[in-house]
Design brief:
Blueprint: H1 2-15, E1 25-33, H2 39-54, E2 59-66, E3 72-78, H3 81-91, H4 95-103, E4 104-115
Antiparallel strand pairs: 1-3, 1-4, 2-3
Length: about 120
């Protein structure tokens, strides 16, 4: 009985691997476009934005989608807030980012940011 209990405990403990989680910085923004008919143009311009983002140090991933009520959601993952801030500063010079920004109704923007643990 003691041997069975010991073996069961060891099996359970061995399945609980301790993987180190790395903190990430996440930026989320919801918004609407200045003109709902710009959807296709917006999607095209975002290919340019993705090219810019992929070149930024600390960039992990981006997900962009549209809800059924014309609200867009943009989710960006970074290695740290410092990486995000550096890329944000550089983005002011990027033509794709400038085009994208011109299509967003900034009165509808809801930004959120957090670090994962």
């Amino acid at each position: 009985m003691k041997t069975s209990l010991l073996l069961a405990t060891l099996c359970i403990l061995s399945s609980c691997t301790t993987t180190e989680t790395k903190v990430q910085h996440v930026e989320i923004m919801t918004f609407r476009l200045t003109n709902p008919t710009l959807d296709q143009d917006f999607a095209t311009v975002n290919e340019e934005v993705n090219t810019f983002l992929k070149k930024q140090h600390g960039f992990i991933s981006r997900d962009l989608g549209k809800c059924n009520d014309s609200t867009w959601i943009d989710v960006l993952r970074w290695e740290s807030v410092k990486h995000f801030e550096a890329a944000y500063t550089k983005s002011a010079e990027d033509q794709g980012v400038k085009k994208m920004s011109g299509m967003i109704d900034f009165n509808t923007v809801v930004p959120l940011s957090f670090n994962t643990y």
